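call fold(seq) -> tokens
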Amino acid sequence: MITYLLIPLFLFVIFLIYSLSIYNRLKSLRNAGDATLSQVRVAMKKRLDMIEQLVETVKSYAKFEQDTFEKITSMRASVGKAGTSELGKIDGLSRGVLGNIIAVAENYPELKTSGTVTPLMNAIKDIEDEIARHRYTYNNIIQEYNTMLDTIPSKYVGRSVGMWKKEYLDFWEEELKRPVVSWVG
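ret:
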């Protein structure tokens, strides 16, 4: 008689432990995704700061429109609270601003050899690589998280505690567009 009671209790304990391990894995993936998304935001803020420094340097060679600074300031303010789709838009806008700066640098050869511009442009390239690495890491984490939320039994564990799929950081559409180059010469 005791055996008949212990078997269901044992099965329930096994089920509970398994469910808790799934829950912990989902929580771990979600937190890792959030941390990586935060790293993307920090890198994008660094890129915007460097673009602003580059604009300051280039400004003496060409008159940029005032909205370039307004765009950078607006983008910097938006990065901290932006979701994945908003980060994609900010990425595209900042690439456009950077394209304008590069065009100015190409039209003023003495600017390209400046002791300030070249290191800043190299630093921005490094930040671009950093953003790409963080985006890759984030998307891998979110892929595993979303897959767990699509498969049984983790799907039921996740849904029972209010976990839903997350968006990927997908900048591909923005990356494929050539930057719009405009300058005042």
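Residues 2-58 form the longest helix (57 residues).
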